[in-house]
What does this fold into?
Amino acid sequence: MWDTFLPIGKEGPFLTALPGFLVIGAARAGTTALHSYLNQHPEIFMPALKEPNFFAYEGQNLDCKGPGADYINNSITDLSDYQALYASAPETSVRGDASPLYLFEPHAPKNIYKHIPDARFVVVLRNPIDQAFSHYLYAVKQAIEVETDFTKALALEDERLAAGWQPLFGYSSFPLYAEQLSRYFEKFPREQFLIRTYEDFRTDPDVLLTDIYQHIGVAADFHADMSAKPNAGGIPKNQAFQEFLMKPNAITRAIGLVVPEKTRHRIRDRLSARNLTKAPEIPSEARAILHERLDPEIRRLETLLDRDFSHWRA
It folds into this structure.
């Protein structure tokens, strides 16, 4: 079950104005790097906008609250706007979209099925306990998480989500993979899914990329340049400098008047990477909380995928 997939070529959904394959997650499991590496393949087209989130929020009037709300509110919700992302794609290219919220958002499977029922899916799952902590560290890096104690941040989940904050802040409710994949399996045949783990990606990314190439029907002998590590994890050495980089201020607004947005973000991300140091270990109290909340979901995932994830529960 785990290794079953059916390669297909560049017909059917790949010749429409919509993508033929979707990297649907999981968040903090290498999707940014995958977007970059897949985009190097001469037969693959990935839009410059990573995470358009269209199938998660199609037709919705978005009004997310709290820190980092723009990430949700700026999602593409109109079909014509989404199709425009692929306007420059070569006619015979295999088009892709990498949006981890597709795994999380309940409406995504039915929206995808409505538009591209033959889509191929790429899923990279990460130990949900590690994923929750990585999501927290990412929020700290982006200067949208003000709580310096992860255990306290876990205690604030329900309050924040009830206030309409973006789903990232539900650190332990975000990586419910069995529940999320079950929604997809109700609509799509399992041979449309390539499911791997973050450990697979870290151990041998070339093998994972080859599997993806075969799954979506492009030449499998291409080797991407993986020297860059986009969106690497870590914590800021200097929090004040990190907030200066990530939050709007008079200096960055002035720079924005003369420097294109894409260039600004590239410079910001490079400076941010230099300001990062190695991520700490999960606090023992927080790890215990996450085990209590997520162990049952890991067991359900083992049953759903017929695979042993006991090392995630250890």
Remarks:
- Residues 1-15 have pLDDT under 50 and may be disordered.
